[in-house]
Amino acid sequence: MNRLQLAENIIELRHQYKVTQDELAEFLGISKASVSKWENRQNYPDITLLPRLASYFNVSVDQLLGFKAQMTKEKIKECYHELASDFANLPFEEVMTKTNELVKEYYSCYPLLMQIVILWMNHFNMAGSESRQKEILKSIMRLCDRIITESESTGLSSDAVVLKAMVQIQMKETQEAIESLEEILDPKRLTRQSDGLLIQAYQMTGETKKAEKTAQISILTNLLGILGSGVNYLSMHLSDPELAELILKRLEKVVEIFETDRLHPNISLLVFYQATIFYCLQQKIPEALGELKKFTDCSIYMINQGVRLHGDEFFTKLDEWFDELDLGAEPVRNKKLVIADIFKMYENPALSSLFEEEEYKELKKRLQREVCG
């Protein structure tokens, strides 16, 4: 994490301009001993001297202090994954303290604040108590509000609205979430058609590579939307076996056609897991075990290939796009935490009708053996 580098900068600038401590002291109207104390970190200049000191060396006050209000995209990505690893390996509150210090230091770096929001959302449930979890969720909403009101990036602001709504739903503030989301997700808005227009425009200008890349991104994001919304739709109709089975068959056909169990295992896991719960509720044990086997196979593949986003022979341009994302192709949570969460899913009471089944026990053992060694 960057800290103020005033002492080092004064020394460096003096040497750069070939200025002695005596000469600098004379210009500022102070003693040589004062300059010496600044450079040895024994004291700091009076705040009223900073503009004159910066002017003397032809730098801004921020440059003199070594203060950087912004962080590069690459540094943000590096910082995020370092902190995600810390959450998996260090005491939770110790990491929260580090993240809060980072927020204070870069409070006007909105891309960083956005990633801190995502980091907290992916780890707040590790907090020791429900009240502490709520505190963190409220902190997330405050950061979202700052991004929404202060950031000049419409993309960041829109993302912050969605993330804030996710927190509102988590905190049972559902009406507020609905009001926030209805406007930006209105299916009648022409912005919903923008992908196709952009692809067409690229083709007309001969930018075929951009057209192909944009088309693949659009297909993938819509595909993930179908599966994500489909899982929610299935969960709404678990009590209607006929409709639920129809929804499930169509979702699994999409998974099969696009091979999302390899392309994007995380979304496929949700399909297989919800299917397992559905068949458990129907007391269809063989079918439930079949879906749990798919869940296990997909989990093993995802973990062993590094939980990393990637393309395939159909989506040939996605690897390039994933590398361009704010966090790159790496997962938003540390692998150790992902594995722990998957094991917890096997203990869900909704699967209790499987607990005494030998195949269920064997699947758990296989997962343990293949991902934990």
Can you give keywords for this protein?
mainly alpha; elongated; 373 residues; 434 Repressor (Amino-terminal Domain); 72% helix; single chain; Serine Threonine Protein Phosphatase 5, Tetratricopeptide repeat
Short précis:
This protein is mainly alpha-helical and 373 residues long. It is built from 20 helices and no strands.
Account of the protein in words:
The protein is mainly α and 373 residues long. It has three domains: 6-65, Orthogonal Bundle (434 Repressor (Amino-terminal Domain)); 73-173, Alpha Horseshoe (Serine Threonine Protein Phosphatase 5, Tetratricopeptide repeat); 194-372. The chain is 72% helix and 0% strand. It has 20 helices and no strands. It has helices spanning 6-17, 21-28, 32-39, 50-56, 61-65, 73-89, 92-105, 110-123, 130-150, 154-170, 174-184, 194-204, 208-236, 241-258, 260-263, 265-281, 285-304, 318-324, 335-346, 358-372. The chain is elongated. The two termini are 35 Å apart. It comes from Mobilisporobacter senegalensis. This is DNA-binding XRE family transcriptional regulator. Keywords: DNA-binding. It holds the Pfam family HTH_3. GO terms for molecular function: DNA binding.
